[in-house]
Amino acid sequence: LLYAGNGTLYESTGLYGRSSVRRVALQTGKVEAQHNMPSSLFGEGLTLLDERLYQVTWKETFGFIYVKHNLSQLSKFNHQMTDGWGLATDGKIFFGSDGTSTLYQMDPQTMKVIKKHIIRYGGVEVIYLNELEYVNGEVWANVWQTDCIARISPADGTLIGWILLSSLREGLIADGEEDIDVLNS
Questions:
Q1: 3-state DSSP call for residue 180?
Q2: Burial of 9 by CB count in 10 Å (0-12 exposed, 13-18 middle, 19+ buried)?
Q3: Using CB atoms within 10 A of its CB, is residue 44 exposed (0-12), middle (13-18) or buried (19+)?
Q4: What distance in Å separates the CA atoms of residue 54 and residue 50, rounded to the nearest whole number?
Q5: Pairwise CA distance, residues 68 & 48, whole Å
Q6: Among the listed residues 44, 45, 82, 86, the one whose alpha carbon sits nearest the alpha carbon of residue 61
Q7: Per-10-residue mean pLDDT for the chain, 185 residues long?
Q8: What is the DSSP letter of 101?
Q9: The whole model's pTM is what?
Q10: In this structure, are residues 29 and 35 in contact, taking their beta carbons and an 8 Å threshold?
């Protein structure tokens, strides 16, 4: 989920046979535009750079570039992550995750890895880094199947702190939601 200003959200939805990139009105939740992916692909992380949306796919080592205003697919790119889970940008480089403890830094022009950091907390690797966001000079990564978001320094991969969201899950369960396994669902 990506907020692009002007009351507009962009969303990459997952699952085989149901993956898409969508533009959604923040106030109403109405889908204003949608690009459906082939049923053989599982859509994952999405980020915006220079009026283009970049999306990675889960098990493939490639992703897609879309025109922001109409979601038409411009091109396909290859990347060097094991899987595609999360994608974010600081406006200069991409940050990627593949479900492991690795935070990748990639060149947006070539998608080649510039740098990798293994994220640790108390000396233990933090696995299942999932969707990423770049927030105020930090990379935020939700950790799959937990109620936690890791706050990471992009400079050296230091885990700065945690955002704990157990009350969010409790509220969703109270509202009748089931099978909640990720914070980005």
A1: coil
A2: middle
A3: buried
A4: 10
A5: 8
A6: 82
A7: 90 95 96 97 97 97 96 97 97 98 98 98 97 98 94 98 87 74 56
A8: S
A9: 0.92
A10: no
